[in-house]
Amino acid sequence: MSDYTEEEQIAQIKEWWQRNGKPLLAGAALALVLVFGWKGWQKHQDTQAQTASVLYQQLLDVALVPSEQVDAQQVAKLLAELKKVNQSSAYAQYAGLLAAKVAVDNNQLDDASLELNAILAKPANDTLAELARQRLARVLLAQEKAEQALQLLDVKVAPAFAATREELRGDALVVLARPEEAKAAYEQAKQALSSEAAAGNLLMKLDNLSEKDA
To answer: How far apart are alpha carbons 172 and 166 in whole angstroms?
Structure first.
């Protein structure tokens, strides 16, 4: 049997509540905020991803047609909407690659360079970084900036991209009238590919350099 009367027990409960009730309520409230805040953030992320996916598909439909049929204004509009959803998302950056392609097709090399530099400044993943790097190098070559293109390509590359990277380096070295180095780069590109994949354009570039040496 308790040594306390009912009134004393109630008084103790009230005292305990005064000491601990508010902190407990605050902690519970914070826990609820964190739980619902996390769920809300997840829902927001899911909504963003769904919106980005729809916009990206629309962009594909507009951009992946014969170049003379591409609506450049619609491409720009969809890209702006994607960037508004999340500029650093993979969807937005793949869209940036498409926009750069459209710009190149329209001989707007400065616009293409801006898009590719923006991706390269903060890539969503390593694949996007390398795609942007190689495409920017091609734009620089088209702008007669071979030295800048070569410098851009002078970083470590993943094996999966080694062949195209070395071929691009070879192209830049040819422009810079450094045929021996160009030949070595093309040979490295060839070694990174299977014999079937190495056929065609790459072998033709090697043959051209060999003819000049003859």
So the answer is: 10
Tell me the per-residue pLDDT of 150-200, one tens digit each, with 9 for 90 and over. 999 999 988 889 999 999 999 999 999 999 999 999 999 988 887 666 667
| Residue given tokens 């902690």 in the structure block | 27
Residue where the block lists tokens 């390593």 = 126
Q: What is the DSSP string of 64-128?
A: SS-GGG--HHHHHHHHHHHHHHHTTSHHHHHHHHHHHHHHHHTT-HHHHHHHHHHHHHS-SSHHH
Q: What confidence tens digit (pLDDT) does each residue in 116-127 have?
A: 999 999 998 999
Q: How far apart are CA 69 and CA 211, in angstroms?
A: 40
Provide the whole-model pTM. Answer: 0.70
Report how far residue 207's alpha carbon sits from residue 211's, in angstroms, rounded to the nearest whole number: 6
C-alpha dist (Å) from residue 164 to 29, 46, 54, 160, 181: 56, 35, 31, 9, 16
